[in-house]
Amino acid sequence: MQTRNLIAGQWTDTGSGGEIEVVDPASDDVVARVPMCGASEALIALNCAFEFQPKWEATPFTQRAGVLRAAAAMLIARKDSLARLITQECGKPLPEAAGEVQYSADYFSSAANEIHALDDMHIALDKPGVRGVVRHRAVGVCAAITPWNFPLAMLARKVAPARAAGCAQLAKPAEETPLCALALAEILLECGLPPQCLHVLTGDAKAIATTWLMDGRVRKLSFTGSTETGRLLLRQCSQEIVRCSMELGGDAAFIVLADANIELAVQSALQAKFRNAGQTCICPNRFLVHKDIASEFAARMAIAAAQLKIAPGLEEGSNIGPLIHDEAVKKVRAHVADALKRGGKLVCGGRTKDMRDRPDRFFEPTVITNCNPNMLCFQDEIFGPVVAIMSVTSADQALEIANASPFGLAGYVFGGNHATALAVAQQLRCGVIGVNEAAPSNARAPFGGVKWSGYGREGGIWGLMEYVTTQYLALRELNT
Ligand code: NAP
């Protein structure tokens, strides 16, 4: 297990602030210790990345793509050990973690496949003797700050396109889950990435980010995390006009129309809602179900939820692992209490399960009906396994409620008539939508939000273009 930081081409195990304990949320066992770096290490990394930037930018596409393809293959080859690492530091069930490794590898394959989108483009100008050339130039040194809920994939989404685009990169993973980021850096070096091209620092988020963003040499920040932190970083980025991609919080609506196939809707809701115990940014937060089928939907959800196995993610058959930390449990409890106080009806769950000598972090799959937009669970990301259902009278009412949220990351529409479901989906104001589909994310497709969920896209050609600037040259041919 790699526990050292990668700074200025060297693996280092000391941080100016001491060290951070990485804890398994299912047991509170210390899994590893990593350096607590701060401003001084952040500056060393930045100096090196800035110096190296032109070299990587000058590296031919074929060589860059070669590193990306090798990394994709190595991620797959190490799927089992990486999946265990994900589960150990973030708690999700092992099969989900294996899915995350595959998803991460897909970002590397996709970036390699899309690299020729960066080829120069030629424009025929209506001007004799002059032609136009459009170039896609690396944006420069970029920074990546990532959350704990997809410790490998959220970084893969940033590292793969930045490598393809020709950027040197500085990365800071979440305090809870630094190990996957370090493992990814190790893989990239083994695949031939020059070590000065990627720097991974664990430690004091504020000190590290401030050093990078206020310096003037970092030209791009890609951040995934909460809207609150995103706002803070945007303020910092305004100083040096640092270009940003902001992948922020969600409040997804899950609309079930009157003619929906209820079984499909229930199975999809289970998959979308309970993945990572409800701790994903595209988790349905607000279930808006037509009144004709709302009771049946809730009853079937409760039956299906009761069959989920609550257990540590490494245990065979686990469906719901622990929440990441005690604060997360507190938040979910507060959401449930608020919903019940405001008239919600508890159908199942609503509390943590007694796991004897394990931490009190295993929240039972919970179904609450009679919800409404005044409840906390309809206004704020629950980030836990709670299905909050409101019965609606029409698709229009569902859309009105769905679009009233200041967030706009993902949405879901389930309906028996494709054209109707599609028409509803197209009126949702969010960036990613599943129509009769529970898992809309794909490494080849654009992922990102609108409004308080941020801006910028990750995945496919869209993710790649976030790391380049477009330069236009008007070239007059000289008669020499
Ligand atoms: P978070 O608290 O905002 O932290 C995310 C990252 O920001 C971590 O690396 C954290 O470092 C760092 N950070 C925190 N405060 C900072 C500061 N003052 N300056 C610089 N960096 C700072 O979010 P989280 O709790 O880890 O993640 C959950 C959130 O991420 C949810 O809202 C979820 O919806 C969102 N998310 C969005 C997407 C998407 O694609 N839109 C995907 C996944 C998750 P430390 O850990 O060291 O504090």
Core attributes:
480 residues, 2 domains, globular, Aldehyde Dehydrogenase, Chain A, domain 2, 7-stranded mixed β-sheet, alpha/beta, Aldehyde Dehydrogenase, Chain A, domain 1, 6-stranded mixed β-sheet, binds NADP nicotinamide-adenine-dinucleotide phosphate, 22 strands, 39% helix
The CATH class of the largest domain: Alpha Beta
At the fourth level of CATH, the homologous superfamily of the largest domain is Aldehyde Dehydrogenase, Chain A, domain 1
Please tally the β strands and state the result: 22
Mean pLDDT: 97
Strand order of the largest sheet: 14-15-16-13-12-18-19
**Low-pLDDT runs:** none
Gross morphology is: globular
Q: Beta-strand level of the residues, as a percent range?
A: 15-25%
Class by SSE composition: alpha/beta
What's the main sheet like?
7 strands, mixed
What distance separates the N and C termini? 62 Å
How many domains make up the 3D coordinates?
2
Q: What hetero molecules are bound to the protein chains?
A: NADP nicotinamide-adenine-dinucleotide phosphate
Number of distinct helices: 15
Proportion of helical residues: 25-40%
- Taking all Cα atoms into account, the compactness measure Rg is 23 Å
The CATH topology name of the largest domain reads: Aldehyde Dehydrogenase, Chain A, domain 1
CATH architecture of the largest domain: 3-Layer(aba) Sandwich
What can be said about this structure in brief?
The chain is of the alpha/beta class and 480 residues long. 39% of the residues lie in helices and 22% in strands. The chain is globular, with a radius of gyration of 23 Å.
